[in-house]
Specification:
- Helix content is about 30%, strand content about 30%.
- The strands form 3 sheets. It has a 4-stranded mixed β-sheet. It has a 4-stranded antiparallel β-sheet with strand order 9-10-8-11, covered by helices on one side.
- Helix 1 crosses helix 2 (about 50-60).
- The chain folds into 2 domains: about 5-120, CBS-domain, CATH 3.10.580.10; about 125-205, 2-Layer Sandwich (Alpha-Beta Plaits), CATH 3.30.70.
- The chain is elongated, with a radius of gyration of 23 Å.
- It has helices spanning about 20-30, 50-60, 85-95, 115-125, 145-150, 185-195; strands at about 10, 15, 35-40, 45-50, 80, 100-105, 105-115, 130-140, 155-165, 170-175, 200-205.
- The chain is of the alpha+beta class.
- The two termini are about 20 Å apart.
- Pfam families: CBS.
- InterPro entries: CBS_dom, CBS_dom_sf, Lmo0553-like.
- This is CBS domain-containing protein.
- Keywords: CBS domain.
Length: about 210
Amino acid sequence: MFVRDLYLEIHEVTTVRNDQSVAEVYETINKSGYRCIPVIDTEGMYKGMIYKVHIMEYLYENDGDENATIDSLLKHKNETISKFSPFLKALIAIKALPYVCVVQDGKLLGILTQNRVESVLKDAFGMTTGGINITLSSVEAKGMIEKLTRTLRGENIEGMFTLDNGSVIARRVVITLEDGKTDEEINVLRDKLIKHGFRILHIDHIDKVE
């Protein structure tokens, strides 16, 4: 999965220009309802991000000039990703940011939000469909996924997420199967997994999360 499959395109994003005054940008960011918006120049080139809190500090705590441009208040000028970046790179890049800007050849294409990243993780856990959530482990890290999928042949796997990657001792896997099984059928499945060398850590029903 790549960033191009997830990001909001620029026509869906509130932006301001770096040649606008602090007062103008403050008005725009207030109307937008966001705490931070991207900044571009007149040609659409990415210049950074501007936070409402920094404008307020500049105006009301530092007695700044509301007619000055916002250049000195810009943040995260170099913290961008490409639309061809893989999802894992985006996950690292976004960190504590409200979003990460998607830039190609210096031009702002759009933004990847925390909500979009969260939706991918929800899907990986099977939370977008709901179902039977099973956390299991195996001491056989190598070939574990292949063995698991063989064991679950015929089951509809809604989501799968691996933990403890790199461990040579044990690895955990969280899977979500299609709901609709009776308690007896779940117990049969549990016994089947145990028979094939998996340790069942937790089984639960999860509801669909919008």
